[in-house]
Amino acid sequence: MSMTAIKGGVLAAEGFMAASTAAGIRKHGREDMALLFSETPCVAAGTYTSNVVKAAPVVWDKELTDHDHAIHAVVINSGIANACTGDAGMEACKQEAQTVSEAFGDVIPPESVLVASTGVIGLPLPMDKMKAGILEMVPKLEHSELHATLASKAIMTTDTKNKEFAVAFEIGGKTVHLGGMTKGSGMIHPKLCTMLCFLTTDLCISKTLLQKALFEDIVDTYNMISVDGDTSTNDTCVILANGKAGNPEITEENEDYQTFKKALHAVNETLARNMAADGEGATHLFTVHVTGANDKETARTLARSVVSSTLTKAAIYGRDANWGRILCAMGYSGAAFDPNKVRLCFVNDIGKILVYKDGVPVDFDEDYAKEILGYEEVTALIELNQGEAEATAWGCDLTHDYVDINASYRT
Amino acid sequence: MSMTAIKGGVLAAEGFMAASTAAGIRKHGREDMALLFSETPCVAAGTYTSNVVKAAPVVWDKELTDHDHAIHAVVINSGIANACTGDAGMEACKQEAQTVSEAFGDVIPPESVLVASTGVIGLPLPMDKMKAGILEMVPKLEHSELHATLASKAIMTTDTKNKEFAVAFEIGGKTVHLGGMTKGSGMIHPKLCTMLCFLTTDLCISKTLLQKALFEDIVDTYNMISVDGDTSTNDTCVILANGKAGNPEITEENEDYQTFKKALHAVNETLARNMAADGEGATHLFTVHVTGANDKETARTLARSVVSSTLTKAAIYGRDANWGRILCAMGYSGAAFDPNKVRLCFVNDIGKILVYKDGVPVDFDEDYAKEILGYEEVTALIELNQGEAEATAWGCDLTHDYVDINASYRT
Questions:
Q1: Chain-chain contact of A327 with B53 (C-beta, under 8 angstroms)
Q2: Which of A13, B169, B222, B321 could lock B194 by a disulfide, CB 3.0 to 4.6 Å apart?
């Protein structure tokens, strides 16, 4: 299949519009609201946090995407998470959707509007500001690359970089576009999905297969990143498909479906990696690649355990090839493997260094290891030599800045 | 039952002796080896790490305690963990035990000698230094409180305080003594036991009941502490009972057994708390007390999840009453509960402040909260209001010093 990375983020696909504004939820006049809109109704699929404490927007969105409502818009705010806010939180979601609906002269129903929030848990949303923000954004909706980027910035919290990505590919002789934006830097250890992720495509596809493709792909993308082991109350990953590419509708798991899945994976993997690299306080993107496992779940479990290990993350920060902590994290992961068959390397663009083989350490050049670990991206390559399955997890190092950010985030 | 805290640590019980030395495994002439000895053979019980990657000493000890060998001695070193060391690691354990046996003129067999190591993973033990250290310690063995303290210091790694505790209580008209020492500051998230813990008692008890009492008690003590979520390869908790108190042997779960269990719990809880308070870089002992759970396991799961939450730990460091992170950590714990019934307070010797009730935040005085959280010990009291079960977990905050210590521990 031929697939090209393109610009445009959530506006790469035909028929989507976006706007953003500074509604005054966050300080210093920072943009803190975004609106995504498609005049053509969208088939929508969503995955949400597995946290028992679910934020109100998660409950609102899940209800809509579970019941096959056609979706026209998503309204998002940063600064306040609308989590642990009781009945008032649900009422806020309803009012957001109603305000969007009314702003479009009731042409689109409130049940076609998804909502999402990120920020401090427990505070009520300032509804006057939210409503004013929505009314300000609606007339600003436009299909402009600039707006996609502004929207991806407006949903940031402790993120240092906005995250957007898009691809173009062919299905049934038509060019299809798929793009997305994500935010997420702390409280990142997704169990069903990442913090906030919005994907748009002009693909024509049935709801069932859109949902299936999304569910299957997050397992190896957003579910494989970790910043701090804390699974958020607000995790949301939504994909909207408005069908404007004009391809024959995908209604079975044919070759077109497989093409779409590859494109979806490319977008999700890039956005997931970017989130891990921009983890709170991170100085390294830390990738763990496990090969030779007996089965896929074993590979995933081991990769996730290593990438989440506090001690390993601190060692990566210190440019310390402390492979013992990696073996240790594999050992307590709950997955079965034979430590005596493991081969462990650190590898990146600088070079590759073998540190452990056949159950015993390998003598290695500490200076060279420090050089490799000094680079901003490093991969721990773990060869189990037991089977054929593999998996990759992405995370980041544990730094002083992480502690600073989170010792003072709320106050 | 009447129970008194007494001095003496591992030497509080009759018939035990201890010694320590600087064998040159660690730098700067620091004491790095300890030897425990009982002329009277001991009934011994042990629990060990659940990590798949088990250090050689864990394998050696488990073999001995599982097969009811009478135990006379424990030799311990800090500096090197003897983990991931392959066959050479097992050979090192054997040589340690043989050296102790020979030093006693072969009166005690190598199979009566337990070994334990803590420190860097992957390095080989320097056997010449280890043997010389053992030969130096044997003539120094003495029943002296000073030696108990020196031994508890020799097994420290990044610990800042030695940890020992002992109690006296009555069984069958005889005074029984039970004492212990532990070490552990990082890589602490025990699944079966804590890093290293040695308990001695002059109680007369069957092997079966000694093991049962130990297994039952660690679930609510060492298994309920967490410093960094990393379960070590070397976790070991051993109890030796030499029977010298002269009480009628405990062979059934009678009143005497219950008395012993209470004493055991008192010692284990104190040592576990002390380990958590001395977590690497810690400025706070952070206790999480969950009440009103439907069952004990739910209470334990929730308490452990909160005490292990990276974001909550950073907030405690920042004296930030960020209760949203606590609700969040409860939510992703996997345990079932109703967030709308939860009542959450921060409490300690300074005061008590309610921050969340019935599914919504409570307005509280931020200055007062900061004052409470400024104290070196703070408890999050989580009332679930659903059942009768409760549990307590102990941990510490996540600080800059934690990052410093672990970014440079090995090198």
A1: yes
A2: B222
